[in-house]
Specification:
Elements: H1 2-5, E1 23-29, E2 32-40, E3 43-48, H2 50-53, E4 71-73, H3 78-81, H4 90-98, H5 106-113, E5 123-126
Antiparallel strand pairs: 1-2, 1-5, 2-3, 3-4
């Protein structure tokens, strides 16, 4: 019940990536590739990399405890959603308008803002087409 109350950061209610888009991101920590986040056919998927599975120094992320599972969801997980700033901020609104980024496209917002976060030591790098 509480999970539903705190699912989306303030200012990100209603964001949704277009179902026909395809995006891929690599989650990393220092030199280690942690895993991949993929959006395809209206679904998000997260899976750990082989290099992460074969090490024991860094524990799995709390939201994704099983190293061997492919996690799937129609909604972007809070771990990744928190990398997008609140869209009600005037500077963010201005930037989105200038760069022609839709406020309701999570994947585009993640590509623009998600690489680094003050709340996380991980990097999230979009795959270049």
């Amino acid at each position: 019940m509480l999970k539903g109350l705190f699912k989306e950061p303030l200012g990100l209610e209603g964001t949704k990536t277009k179902t026909q888009s395809y995006e891929r991101f690599e989650l990393g920590y220092k030199e280690l590739e942690i895993g991949s986040l993929v959006f395809k056919n209206g679904e998000w998927a997260f899976m750990y990399s082989d290099s992460f599975k074969n090490q024991n120094e860094i524990l799995p992320l709390i939201d994704f405890p099983d190293k061997n599972k492919v996690y799937r969801s129609a909604e972007l997980w809070p771990f990744f959603l928190s990398r997008i700033p609140g869209l009600s901020q005037p500077a963010v609104k201005d930037l989105l308008r200038k760069e022609k980024i839709s406020e309701d496209d999570e994947a585009a917002l993640l590509k623009r803002f998600g690489k680094n976060s003050i709340t996380s030591p991980f990097t999230l790098v979009p795959e270049m087409a």
